[in-house]
């Protein structure tokens, strides 16, 4: 009966992995399968639990980084995330105190604020550090 419980646990861990894709619970499924094999061999429950824990943690620690490297590919920034790092020209002085400042990027005017609260004059080149709502947070180059 213990082997059935271990196999059900393995199925639950596999289902959790399918739903989350976090490369975490799949390793516990491996530990549950090893414990199920031990249960079939009529090994004591305590040894099954210890082996389940050791195998699961070993799989998590030693194989997860390798699996992440090959399975999780680099994400490509889209929409406003793709703006971060771009260099743009200031078309209206950036002054956080006066809540003013604009930059032009791809023929579109954006409200801009200085990352370090410095005043950045017109025609300066700045780099976009982050996007906050509809404002670009910039740093002078």
The averaged pLDDT comes out at 90
Measured between the Cα atoms of the first and last residue, the distance is 68 Å
Placed side by side, the strands forming the largest sheet appear as 1-2-3-5-4
**Got a strand count?**
5
Largest sheet properties: 5 strands, mixed, barrel
The total tally of domains equals: 2
Number of helices: 3
Q: What is the CA-atom radius of gyration, in angstroms?
A: 27 Å
Helix content: 40-55%
Shape designation: rod-shaped
What percentage of the residues does DSSP assign to strands (E)? 25-35%
Order of helices and strands: HHHEEEEE
Parts with pLDDT < 50 across at least 5 consecutive residues: none
Counting helices, strands and paired strands, the structural category is: alpha+beta
What order do the helices and strands come in, and which of them pair?
Blueprint: H1 2-20, H2 25-40, H3 45-71, E1 87-95, E2 100-105, E3 108-114, E4 125-132, E5 135-140
Parallel strand pairs: 3-5
Antiparallel strand pairs: 1-2, 1-4, 2-3, 4-5
Describe, in short, the structure shown.
The chain is an alpha+beta fold and 141 residues long.
Describe the structure.
This protein has 141 residues and is an alpha+beta fold. The chain folds into two domains: 2-71, no CATH class; 79-140, OB fold (Dihydrolipoamide Acetyltransferase, E2P). The protein is 44% helix and 26% strand. The protein contains three helices and five strands. The protein has helices at 2-20, 25-40, 45-71, and strands at 87-95, 100-105, 108-114, 125-132, 135-140. It has a five-stranded mixed barrel. Strand 2 (100-105) and strand 3 form a beta hairpin. Helix 1 (2-20) packs antiparallel against helix 2 and helix 2 (25-40) packs antiparallel against helix 3 (45-71). The longest helix has 27 residues, at 45-71.
């Amino acid at each position: 009966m213990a082997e059935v419980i271990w196999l059900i646990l393995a199925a639950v861990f596999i289902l959790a992995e399918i739903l989350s894709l976090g490369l975490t619970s799949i390793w516990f499924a491996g530990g549950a399968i090893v414990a199920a094999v031990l249960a079939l061999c009529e090994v004591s429950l305590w040894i099954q639990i210890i082996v389940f824990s050791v195998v699961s943690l070993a799989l998590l620690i030693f194989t997860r980084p390798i699996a992440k490297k090959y399975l999780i590919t680099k994400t490509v920034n889209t929409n406003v995330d793709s703006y971060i790092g771009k260099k743009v020209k200031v078309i209206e002085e950036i002054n956080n105190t006066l809540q003013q400042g604009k930059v032009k990027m791809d023929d579109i005017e954006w409200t801009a604020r200085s990352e370090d609260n410095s005043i950045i004059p017109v025609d300066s080149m700045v780099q976009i550090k982050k996007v906050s709502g509809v404002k670009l947070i910039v740093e002078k180059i």
